[in-house]
Each structure stands twice: as structure tokens, then as C-alpha cells.
Amino acid sequence: MGSINSSHRRRRMSSSLDLSSSQREDLATSQEGAEGGHGEDVPDTHVEEDAADSDNEHHDLSSILAYLIRSGQVRILTSDDRGDSYSEDEDFCEEQRPPAVDPNPDTSRIQENDIYEEVLLKSGRSSAFDKSHHTVSHMLYKRQIGMGKQIKFGASDRRVISTPYLPNYCDTVAHYRQKAFCGTYSVDGNIFLSASQDQNIRIYDTKEDRFDLLKTIRAKDVGWSVLDTAFSPDGNYMIYSSWSECIHLCNVHGDQNVHQALHLFPTENSFCIFSLTFSSDNREILGGANDGHLYVYDRDSNQRTLKIDAHDDDVNAVAFADTTSQILFSGGDDGLCKVWDRRTLKEDHPVPVGTLAGHYDGITYIDPKGDARYLLSNSKDQTMKLWDIRMFSSATAIEQTKKAVSKQRWDYRWQQVPRKMDKHRRLQGDTSVMTYKGHSVLHTLIRCHFSPEFTTGQRYVYTGCAMGNLIIYDTLTGQVVRKLEGHRQCVRDVSWHPYENNIITTSWDGSLRKWEYKSVDKIEQEEERSSSESEEDLGGLFRRSRQIRKKCKKRQRQASWCQNADKKFRGLFD
């Protein structure tokens, strides 16, 4: 569990709770197997550790019990509990504080960077040097009279027109009995892949606005849950990982089922790949593990070819920089993002090309822009950062980040965000070009992404949120442009369709929700229709209740008449 070395303390805390054996086992598994440690440095001597335990055990027990109640694994029962109210739980748990939002993001660095002009042009907005800012009606007029260079709208024009139509309304497209962990579109958007804690991986057909279940794959060798999935670039295969020594490979299409275990042969007894991805040529699989190493598996030779000592703590996220598959990114619980050159990687002397430092806590996810120049990172310090990989951090900045991470004394899996986290200033030597703040990163490795280039020109960055929301930021201003509320629990994964204007959110409440744009009139009509349907259902329920009461009264009268008749005519037919 990263740098924390207190597994016996976690076992002792779980045993001190008045839980059933199955709940106690589930708690132990969740603590031992939940993704990522929290970077807390605990002295390795039993005397100091026991002293710290006596001071903090009461607080830890309260935090763990509050987390179990919030997640629905434990419920407070009273003598008059009738099973129809959770008010006792809500009163017991401290309400989760909403994330702090930065009202005035610092845009000084991004305005001086190349990405500023690039995103402006690709998203169809006017150049930074052109202040005309034409409206859609003006664009239509210019096209009509032939003043434009083209007789039809180009890609940037279409992106400008679609700007007001960001998704704002959702429908539930799937619901599971247990937590949903992963959900992602394929490269062409025709397939959607989801993974749940019920150990099932479901593949859906999403062509032509459908969401039809194609097949269900029963995951093998699963501990806690399936934690990550990835499509092959050709879309024919998918891989998944869990608390297991193997990555598993399955086919997406075809009549014959392929379910192959790819052995990594780690040295750790408790091993997990938290993040994995294919290379663009389909030949290699890259994974990041809880032992701080990067693993490269070669599909042609069917063996692990590299094991790189990459981070001082769990490696929570890995990615290839672009389609050349030569530059690799990794992010870990040590708070650092590292850049590697595949051509120079050596197991006996692993040296990154450079390091990106500036977060106060561990990295939960990274997403490359796809041009081998920019990288997005999500962190337990409750921020998302945009990096230019041409601007590496100094040794001083790296030490500052490691020092900041080592000072963290909280566990993001079940504790609330410390209030001091909202007051952090930019670390000395932080080379990020933009910081986004307004979402909550708790409980699990929450994902973030750039919006699709085809429909938005990567104008936005978006992320899940522990509050059950989907948060969309403007890439260049850092402002929250959409806060979509629809889930009851943490949104762990988010996926924007590469060619259509919809987003699917994957939540711990067991649901997948599809977000699309609907006008205010349509939303009102939907609400009126659902309200009338509920009233009709309620009215029907009342009518059925009245009918049942009438039948009951009739039976009572009949029973009463029979009793009287029996008394009156007793002995007549004996």
C-alpha cells in the first residue's frame, strides 16, 4: 500500500469493529486492495508505531465506519428500524464537504504557452490576435453570400456552432448491483466497455445511438474488483487487470472466445496492475503496478520483456504519449509524473527523460493530449494539472514535491479532505502550465481526460468527482463550464464519445449514465411526462388500494354472515 507499512494496524482496526465475519473480511480486502496508498510515512519501529496507533486509532475507526456507512456496506439499525429509512446513517456520518473551486484560476502561464493559440484555432474560436469573435449568425451570413474561403463549414466552424450544446441531461443506460469501476468508448466509438465489482465485463454496441449488450465476459482471478481495462488500437481485443499476477486478454468480436492470462511474474506476494494500455502497433502492453514498477509485455514473444523501477510508491497511471509508442508517461503515489523513452529503457539502470513535479499528493490518473507534448494529471491533492513535457522540473522541485507528499497524514480512501488542502499554494518549481480546481478526488483512482478533438478541438478537460458529479473545465481559462449532477456515489470513470456529443459516466452507485444535450423545453416536457406517469402510477395504486379495501370489507361481511348463519342454523344439518 505505497509507503505506509501498517497492515497489522488495519487488521486490528477492522477486527475492533462490531461487524460480521463477511463484512470484516470485506473491510480487510478493501483496505489491503483499494487502489493506491496515501503516501503516509510511518516509522518502521513497533514502539513508535504503537504509540501513534494509540493516539490515532479512535479517529481512524470513526473515519472507516463513516466510509463504510457512506458506501452502503454498513448500516446503523435501531430497535424501531423498519427498513425504510436511512436517516440514522445520514445523521451519523459527517456530510461530505463540496470541493473548493478556484474562482480566479491563474492563466498567466498557459497564455504564454503554444497550447493557448493551438486550442483557440482548433476549437474554432478566433485567434488570440484576432478580436473580431464572429457570432454563429454572422458565420451563416458569410457562408450564404460566399465571403468565406469555403462554401461549407469547416471542422473549426462546426466546433464553434456546437459550443452552446454541451451535454446537460442524462439517462441511465445500465445499472448493476455492485460498484461500476471502468467505462470507456472504443477508438471509433462503436463499442463501450464497462467493468463492475460483480466481476463481469460487459461490452455494448453503441453504433447509431444504440446501447445494446453484445457480450458479457466473466473476469478471472479477481481480487476486490476489475481495476482497469483497455481496448487494442484495432478494437478486436481488450485487456483487464485486478489484484492478480496476470493481465488478461479477451477478444471483443468473433464466435470463438479468447481469454488468455499474460503472466508478469512479479516478486511481490500481493500484486496489482492499477493501470494498463496497448501500444499503437498492438505489439506491447504497458502496465503500472503497486510495487512501483512499470511492466512491458510483448505479445509476439508472449513474455514480459521489461520491468522498470519507476516510482517510490504505487504506479497508478501509465500512458503512451502518441502513436509512435516511443515515449511513455507514468504517474505514481509519490506525486510525480515521469517521462520515459522506450528506446533507452534498461532494467539495470532506468533513467527517465524528465520528471514533472508540482502536486502535493499522489497521482490518480494521467491522460496524454496525443501530440507527445502535453499531459493531463489528476491528483489526490484535489487538483488537475496540465503539463508541457518540454518543461521538466528541477531537482529542487522534485524534492519539494516528495517532501509535500510525505507530510500528508490522511487516507483519501475513507477520510475527508483536510481543510488545509484548500489553502495550498503553488509549489516551488511547479512547471505545470495550468491548474484546475473544483472537483473531489476521494475513495478511488478517479479519471480525467481531454475532450475529443473531432467535436471540440480539445477545448475542454473533464473529470469524475467523488461527489457523484461530472465536471467539465475550459482548458484555457480553468473555469468550470459544466457541473453535471446525477449519481448518488463517486463517479470513477468518464468517457466522451470521440465523434458524437455525448458522455458516459461510470459510478460506484452501480449505474452508467449517458449525458446528452437537450433544450430547456424538452427537459421540461420530460419532467412533466415523468411527473404525470408517476401521478398515474400513484393514482392507479390508490385505485387498487380502494378495490382491495372493498374486497376485504366484502369478505369481512361474508365471514360475519357465515358466522351468524352458523350460530342460527347450528344442528340443522348435523
Task: Tell me what the structure shows.
The longest helix has 49 residues, at 520-568. α1 (7-16) runs antiparallel to α2 and α1 packs across α3. This protein is α+β, with helices and mostly antiparallel strands. Residues 1-32, 38-52, 78-93 and 561-574 have low confidence and may be disordered. 26% of the residues lie in helices and 27% in strands. It has helices spanning 7-16, 21-33, 46-70, 87-92, 108-111, 114-122, 136-145, 155-162, 395-406, 453-456, 520-568; strands at 169-175, 180-185, 191-196, 200-205, 212-218, 228-231, 237-241, 246-251, 259-263, 273-278, 284-289, 293-298, 303-309, 315-320, 327-332, 337-341, 354-356, 363-368, 374-379, 384-388, 434-436, 448-450, 460-464, 469-474, 480-485, 491-496, 503-507, 511-516. A four-stranded antiparallel sheet has the order 1-28-27-26, with no helix packed on it. It has a four-stranded antiparallel sheet with strand order 2-3-4-5, with no helix packed on it. A four-stranded antiparallel sheet has the order 6-7-8-9, with no helix packed on it.
Write the layout of secondary structure elements.
Elements: H1 7-16, H2 21-33, H3 46-70, H4 87-92, H5 108-111, H6 114-122, H7 136-145, H8 155-162, E1 169-175, E2 180-185, E3 191-196, E4 200-205, E5 212-218, E6 228-231, E7 237-241, E8 246-251, E9 259-263, E10 273-278, E11 284-289, E12 293-298, E13 303-309, E14 315-320, E15 327-332, E16 337-341, E17 354-356, E18 363-368, E19 374-379, E20 384-388, H9 395-406, E21 434-436, E22 448-450, H10 453-456, E23 460-464, E24 469-474, E25 480-485, E26 491-496, E27 503-507, E28 511-516, H11 520-568
Antiparallel strand pairs: 1-28, 2-3, 3-4, 4-5, 6-7, 7-8, 8-9, 10-11, 11-12, 12-13, 14-15, 15-16, 16-17, 18-19, 19-20, 20-21, 22-23, 23-24, 24-25, 26-27, 27-28
